[in-house]
């Protein structure tokens, strides 16, 4: 039952994520076709004018589309694989927990299936139960070791991959926000200009612009969190606190 649930979840996640990747690729490849003139999905440098002749333009368009589509397809397959293996490891832990929680029940069922329930000797029945119980506990220990080795191999293989994804995402977001902050110096730019030589109307207009520029430009994530240094450090502190609590638990 647990394995079947894991398979269903993995299939759903895989097709959902892969479907979004394909949908994004379709929009990426077809959006420039609805504009004016010849445009490529991504403007790249080529040693020739790709937009001059139709055959060259079509070939370059297909080249760019396939190049980006390769990355989209790879992400659509690799990312669900990482999540699916983690889900599989969690499912094995659920199976182990279920076996340990209902250990006595499963032992009685196995003894009953082997035909020992009609044993007349109480001591013999107790001996058989202890033997089966120890056998199942040994199996649970072996199962736990196998899960532990699986998680260790999973961590060794995909740890650097997941870290790279997190680091790349954080780096891109921080760089974009940093660029936005560095560009938000409108007041300084006005002050550094030759505003004292302007006429009165221009000075008033610049004063209005300076007051308007006092409102900070804030980028949010889902209209909930501000993408700022304060938010970033807060998330790091809370993540560390949660990790410490889970480790102690």
TrEMBL record:
Keywords: Cell membrane, Membrane, Olfaction, Receptor, Sensory transduction, Transducer, Transmembrane, Transmembrane helix. The chain crosses the membrane at residues 12-34, 157-181. This is 7tm 6 domain containing protein. The keyword Transmembrane applies. GO terms for cellular component: plasma membrane. It is a multi-pass membrane protein. One of its GO terms (molecular function) is olfactory receptor activity. It is found in: Cell membrane. One of its GO terms (biological process) is signal transduction.
């Amino acid at each position: 039952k647990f394995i079947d649930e894991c398979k269903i979840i993995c299939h759903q996640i895989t097709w959902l994520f892969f479907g979004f990747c394909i949908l994004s690729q379709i929009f990426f490849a077809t959006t420039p076709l609805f504009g004016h003139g010849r445009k490529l999905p991504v403007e790249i440098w080529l040693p020739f004018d790709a937009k001059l002749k139709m055959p060259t333009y079509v070939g370059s368009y297909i080249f760019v589309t396939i190049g980006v589509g390769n990355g989209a397809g790879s992400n659509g397959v690799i990312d669900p694989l990482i999540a699916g293996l983690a889900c599989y490891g969690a499912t094995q832990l659920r199976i182990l927990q279920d076996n340990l929680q209902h250990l006595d029940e499963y032992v009685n069922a196995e003894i009953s299936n082997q035909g020992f329930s009609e044993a007349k000797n109480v001591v013999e029945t107790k001996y058989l139960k202890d033997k089966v119980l120890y056998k199942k506990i040994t199996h649970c220990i072996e199962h736990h070791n196998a899960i532990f080795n699986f998680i260790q191999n999973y961590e060794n293989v995909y740890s650097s991959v997941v870290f790279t994804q997190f680091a790349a995402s954080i780096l891109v977001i921080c760089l974009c926000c940093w660029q936005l902050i560095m560009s938000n110096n409108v007041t300084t730019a006005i002050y550094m200009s030759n505003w004292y030589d302007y006429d009165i109307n221009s000075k008033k207009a610049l004063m209005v612009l300076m007051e308007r520029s006092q409102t900070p430009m804030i980028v949010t994530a889902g209209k909930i969190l501000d993408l700022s240094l304060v938010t970033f450090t807060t998330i790091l502190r809370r993540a560390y606190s949660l990790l410490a609590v889970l480790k102690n638990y």
